[in-house]
């Protein structure tokens, strides 16, 4: 055998040691990666999903779903509100028709004879917002009204009053007189003594 000098063996020994260390590192990383992938395939899957934009798609889908649900709920509320307003308008129209019918019956019954005037009042002031269908409207301060019934309406704060109006256009003598009937606030009337 050949005699080898320690100087020649030293580089060979260093290369062998480096090769062994490198193989050990590769083996360690390989086993670590295989343990890591075996232990957490969910993390690897999540990493893949993050790279292809799935979270952004899910977030966008959720935003679209929330906007769609909100739009649907707003449309439903608008539809319910419109139905309620329509129902109230119908009830008001029915109430107006009943009031007009009662008023015309009261006026036409025996030519208005059944309308007994309890007393007369003159209008001290006219409320600014007084325009309901049961209200006596188009009055001026100083007009004289006939009180047919006291204490009507909400909290008995109104009087049922009538006023005879002259027709706007000249009419024949045989035409009926124009009488308006409605509620008027007691606080705006002053009794004539």
Structural description of this entry:
- By secondary structure, this protein is an alpha+beta fold.
- Helix content is 52%, strand content 17%.
- It contains three helices and five strands, in the order αααβββββ.
- Strands 4-3-2-1-5 form a five-stranded antiparallel sheet, with no helix packed on it.
**Biggest beta-sheet profile:** 5 strands, antiparallel
Catalogue the unreliable spans: none
Distance between the termini: 154 Å
Number of helices, counting only DSSP H or I runs of 4 residues or more: 3
How many E-type strands?
A: 5
Strand residue content = 15-25%
Please, what is the average pLDDT? Answer: 78
The global form is rod-shaped
Helix content: 40-55%
Widest β-sheet, arrangement of strands = 4-3-2-1-5
SS class: alpha+beta
Q: Summarize the helix and strand pattern as letters.
A: HHHEEEEE
What Rg, in angstroms, do the CA atoms define? 48 Å
Reconstruct the topology from this structure:
Layout (H helix, E strand, L loop, with lengths): L5 H34 L1 H11 L2 H55 L10 E5 L20 E9 L5 E8 L12 E8 L3 E3 L2
Antiparallel strand pairs: 1-2, 1-5, 2-3, 3-4
List keywords for this structure.
single chain, five-stranded antiparallel β-sheet, 5 strands, alpha+beta, 193 residues
């Amino acid at each position: 055998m050949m005699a080898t000098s320690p100087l020649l063996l030293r580089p060979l020994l260093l290369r062998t040691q480096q090769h062994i260390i490198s193989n050990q590192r590769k083996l360690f990383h390989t086993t670590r990666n295989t343990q890591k992938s075996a232990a957490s395939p969910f993390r690897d899957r999540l990493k893949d999903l993050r790279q292809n934009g799935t979270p952004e798609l899910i977030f966008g889908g959720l935003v679209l779903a929330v906007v769609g649900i909100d739009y649907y709920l707003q449309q439903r509320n608008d539809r319910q509100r419109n139905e309620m307003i329509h129902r109230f308008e119908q009830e008001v129209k029915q109430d107006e028709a009943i009031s007009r019918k009662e008023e015309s019956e009261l006026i036409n019954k025996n030519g208005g004879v059944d309308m007994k005037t309890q007393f007369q009042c003159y209008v001290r002031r006219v409320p600014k917002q007084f325009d309901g269908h049961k209200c006596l409207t188009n009055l001026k301060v100083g007009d004289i009204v006939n009180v047919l019934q006291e204490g009507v309406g909400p909290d008995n704060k109104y009087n049922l009053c009538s006023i005879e109006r002259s027709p706007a256009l000249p009419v024949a003598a045989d035409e009926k007189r124009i009488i308006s009937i409605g509620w008027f606030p007691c606080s705006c009337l002053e009794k004539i003594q």
